[in-house]
Structure formats: structure tokens, C-alpha cells
Write a structure and sequence with these properties.
The protein is of the alpha+beta class. The chain has two domains: about 25-120, no CATH class; about 125-169. The chain has six helices and five strands. It has helices at about 40-45, 55-60, 60-65, 70-90, 95-100, 105-115, and strands at about 25-30, 35, 130, 140-150, 150-160. It has a three-stranded antiparallel beta sheet, with no helix packed on it. A two-stranded antiparallel sheet has the order 1-2. β4 and β5 (about 150-160) form a beta hairpin. The protein is globular and about 55 Å long. It starts with about 25 loop residues before the first strand and ends in a 7-residue tail after the last strand. This is MmyB-like transcription regulator ligand binding domain-containing protein. It comes from Nocardia fluminea.
């Protein structure tokens, strides 16, 4: 059986090997609204403020149409991601308003109506991992998801969904 090789320790990027000031940083809410972003983000996404700081709305403005290679494919990916988020937040008034606003745009409607992806509600999740939290009696139920970050197979993104009542103090 072949063994998967791990990345060489010295080949991983660190804060000392990455170029200072050239790393895009942003915090997004689930509806793709930028809560905070650095100068690099705003340089890469000009006029984001005119789209209410929402990445999906920004994607439908002129700067990305002319700056993003493969704009149509990127738009489809964002629409698919938005569909999955809306499965969870479909009753949120902000989500409903965002969809109403986006549907006014012909490119969004075409991408939304043209994608075969559908979201299934109440789909059973895998059984979560249960962790003991020091100082509490109830375990924390945690579902972890691990994905590669874009084309860089040496960087993994890990996020978890947890039951908040289990960690409330």
C-alpha cells in the first residue's frame, strides 16, 4: 500500500516567508457580506462599498465582469454556495432581502435558474463527534469538515459546526 506523502515542513508558508502586505484578509458572514477586510481585499474588489460590501452583489457590478477571468463560471460557483447558505438561513429577513435584490439582476437570475444544483432541507447529517469540555457536564457535539484551500493542496481549511447549548457556561 502506497503511503501518502506529507508536505515538507520547510516548504509550508509562514508569516516570515509570505510577502508582507500582499495577503488578502477578509471576514465574511454566511451571506457573503464582508464584515472586515484589509487594504488588499479592497484593492482586489474595487467598489465593494457600492455593493453594500456583499461579495455576491459585487460580482454583479462592472469591476468583476471586466476583471475576473472566467466571470460566468465564478458567478455560478458563488450562486451554488449561496444556495447552500440559504438552506440554513432561508427564514432570515436579511437573506430574503438579499435574494430579492439579486433576482433583479438578469445575470444572477440566469445563473440561479440555470444551475441544476438544488438544496435539500432536513437532510440527515453524519453523527457528530462528541468532545468533553473541561468544567462542563455535557459533551460538545461537533461536525468537522476539512477541505483543500483552492489550488494549494498544502493548505487545508477546517471548520466545525457545533451545538451551542453544549458550551454555554
Amino acid at each position: 500500500m502506497a503511503r501518502a506523502s506529507s508536505p515538507r515542513r520547510d516548504s509550508r508558508p509562514t508569516s516570515t516567508t509570505l510577502p508582507s502586505g500582499k495577503i488578502l484578509r477578509a471576514y465574511l458572514d454566511p451571506l457573503q457580506t464582508v464584515l472586515d477586510g484589509n487594504e488588499v481585499l479592497h484593492r482586489m474588489m474595487p467598489c465593494l462599498d457600492k455593493a453594500d460590501h456583499n461579495g455576491m452583489r459585487w460580482m454583479l457590478t462592472q469591476p468583476p465582469v471586466t476583471r475576473v477571468y472566467g466571470w460566468r463560471g465564478e458567478l455560478l460557483d458563488l450562486v451554488r454556495n449561496l444556495r447552500t447558505v440559504l438552506a440554513r438561513y432561508r427564514n432570515d429577513p436579511r437573506a430574503q432581502e438579499l435574494v430579492r435584490t439579486l433576482r433583479k439582476d438578469i445575470a444572477f437570475r440566469s445563473a440561479w435558474d440555470g444551475t441544476p444544483m438544488q438544496v435539500t432541507y432536513d437532510w440527515p447529517r453524519t453523527t457528530p463527534m462528541r468532545l468533553r469540555i473541561p468544567g462542563t457536564r455535557q459533551p460538545l457535539a461537533l461536525n468537522l469538515e476539512i477541505n483543500e484551500y483552492g489550488a494549494c493542496s498544502e493548505v487545508l481549511v477546517v471548520h466545525g459546526l457545533y451545538s451551542t447549548p453544549a458550551i454555554v457556561c
